[in-house]
Amino acid sequence: MLIADEVNDSPIEQVRLTVPITDDPTIPCLTFRTWALGLSSCVLLSFVNQFFVYRTNPIGISSVCAQIVTLPLGKLMAATLPKKVFHVPMTNWSFSLNPGPFTLKEHVLITIFANAGAAGPYAVNIITIVKAFYGRGINAMAAMLLAQTTQVSSFFVSASNAGHQWQCAYKFDRKIFSCSVMAGLVCSGSTLLILLTCGGREFLFKCHSSGKQHQHLSSIDIRNKAQLAKNLVSLMKLRCRALHEDEKRPKGGLSRMQFFLIVFISSFAYYIIPNYFFPSLSALSFVCWIWKDSVTAQQIGSGLKGLGIGSFGLDWATVAAFLGSPLATPAFSIFNTLVGFIITVYVLLPITYWTNAYNAKRFPLITADVFDSDGKHYNISRILDPKTFSINYDEYDNYSKINLSVFFTYTYGLSFATLMASLTHAFLFYGKNTWEMWRKAEKSTSNKFADVHTRIMKKNYRPVPQWWFGILLLIVLGLSMFTCEGFHKQLQLPFWGILLACAMAMIFMLPVGVLLATTNQGPGLNVITELVIGYLYPGKPLANVTFKTYGYISMSQALTFLTDFKLGHYMKIPPKSMFLVQLVGTVVSSSIYFGTAWWLLTSIKDICNIDLLPDDSPWTCPGDDVFYNASIIWGVVGPRRMFGPLGLYSKMNWFFVIGLLAPVPVWLLTRAFPEKKWIRLINMPIVLSGAGSMPVAKTVHYISWFTVGIAFNFFVYRRYKAWWARHNYVLSAALDAGVAFMGVATYFALQNYNIYGMEWWGAEASDHCPLAKCPTAPGVVAKGCPVF
Question: Which pLDDT score is estimated for 184?
Answer without folding.
Answer: 30
